[in-house]
Amino acid sequence: MAEVYFYHLTRSGVEPTLVTLLGRARQQEWRVAVRGVGRARLEGLDSALWTHGANDAFLPHGLAGGDHDAAQPILLTEGPTPNAPDCLMSIDGAEISPDELSPLKRACILFDGTDGEALSRARAQWTALTGAGVGARYWSEESGKWEEKASKNV
């Protein structure tokens, strides 16, 4: 079963952190699903990923609902993950259930630590997942660099 890494963002936004994590996952040749809430948000993220950097930093991806969802190395979705991901990344409070973690190598939950509602949602996700026996690690960038601040069931 995959461990879930919680990323408490206080200095960086979701998009730049997501781009970094997606790049690292693709270096490991992992397939990734990015689960969000709201089609408009995912469409904006889709546009941002097409234009985020130089050609050598290209992140091949698609927006769910196309003909080739199952073949996408990175799939942006609101729900199911037909691309058989190795890693599932949650943004904007999108749900990850313990049941869907068994085939994964990792799951990541990115949340804006300056937003009280996002922070409460991440805390509820931590409680639900670790309560179900899922291993979890909590990472914070408050000091200016990423540091693991807590872990449970690992």
Lay out the secondary structure.
Blueprint: E1 3-9, H1 14-27, E2 32-35, H2 39-51, E3 62-63, E4 74-77, E5 87-90, E6 106-112, H3 116-131, E7 136-140, E8 147-152
Parallel strand pairs: 1-6, 1-7, 2-4, 2-5, 3-4, 5-6
Antiparallel strand pairs: 7-8
Strand percentage, roughly?
Answer: 25-35%
Enumerate how many helices there are, as a single number. Answer: 3
N/C terminus separation? 11 Å
What's the count of strands? 8
Mean pLDDT score, rounded?
94
Q: Order of strands in the sheet with the most strands?
A: 3-4-2-5-6-1-7-8
How would you characterize this protein structure?
The protein has about 150 residues and is of the alpha/beta class. The chain is about 30% helix and about 25% strand. It is built from three helices and eight strands; from the N terminus they run βαβαββββαββ. Strands 3-4-2-5-6-1-7-8 form an eight-stranded mixed beta sheet, with helices on both faces. The termini are close together.
Task: Please outline what is shown here.
By secondary structure, the chain is an alpha/beta fold. 28% of the residues lie in helices and 25% in strands. A hairpin with a 6-residue loop joins β7 and β8 (147-152).
List keywords for this structure.
eight-stranded mixed beta sheet; globular; alpha/beta; 154 residues
